[in-house]
């Protein structure tokens, strides 16, 4: 079992099918407007999870659970400040950092997925490189700067 950082292959195809809209908000666009966007979530996973490029959808299998309190709920947390833009000739998407406050949990990785799609379609998998733990404290994912060489999602 392993978590491998990757842009999900199914996501790449779904982009060409127009299934993902990263404009802030919820809803969707048409062929001539951007609409108000889809809702994206971030779920945390233990080192027992098997996630990578072939992952197609959110799953509860080996999802992180809180060992104390109720800071982490199945499905993860909605992402804020989802903002598509251009950096030169590279299309990028930015996310606001996500925090589970007063949590007691351990996670090895995360999945960003499209909560607006009925199948909770996977976007990308994040591998933290090792188990990360919070103990009655904040568990925060700091997303990279929104730039052509650093944005989490970028199309050059």
- Helix fraction? under 10%
Q: What is the number of E strands?
A: 8
Class inferred from helices and paired strands:
mainly beta
> Mean pLDDT score, rounded?
88
**Ranges with pLDDT <50 over ≥5 residues?**
26-32
Order of helices and strands: EHEEEEEEE
β content, as a range?
A: 35-45%
Biggest beta sheet attributes: 5 strands, antiparallel
Rg is 15 Å
Morphology: globular
- Report the span from N to C terminus: 32 Å
SS element count, helices: 1
Strand line-up across the major sheet:
1-7-6-2-3
Description:
- With about 160 residues, the protein is mainly β.
- The protein has a domain at about 5-85 and about 105-135.
- The chain contains one helix and eight strands; from the N terminus they run E-H-E-E-E-E-E-E-E.
- It has one helix at about 10-15; strands at about 5, 40-45, 75-80, 85, 90-95, 100-115, 120-140, 155.
- A five-stranded antiparallel β-sheet has the order 1-7-6-2-3. Strands 4-5-8 form a three-stranded antiparallel β-sheet, with no helix packed on it.
């Amino acid at each position: 079992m392993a978590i491998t950082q990757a842009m999900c292959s199914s996501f790449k195809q779904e982009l060409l099918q127009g299934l993902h809209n990263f404009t802030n908000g919820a809803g969707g666009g048409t062929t001539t407007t951007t609409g108000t966007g889809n809702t994206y979530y971030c779920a945390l996973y233990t080192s027992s999870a098997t996630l990578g490029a072939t992952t197609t959808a959110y799953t509860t299998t080996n999802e992180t659970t809180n060992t104390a309190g109720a800071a982490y709920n199945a499905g993860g947390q909605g992402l804020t400040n989802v903002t598509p833009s251009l950096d030169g000739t590279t299309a990028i998407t930015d996310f606001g950092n996500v925090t589970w406050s007063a949590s007691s949990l351990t996670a090895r990785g995360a999945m960003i997925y499209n909560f607006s799609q009925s199948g909770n379609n996977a976007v990308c998998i994040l591998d933290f490189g090792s188990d990360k733990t919070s103990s009655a404290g904040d568990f925060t994912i700091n997303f990279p700067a929104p730039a052509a060489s650093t944005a989490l999602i970028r199309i050059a």
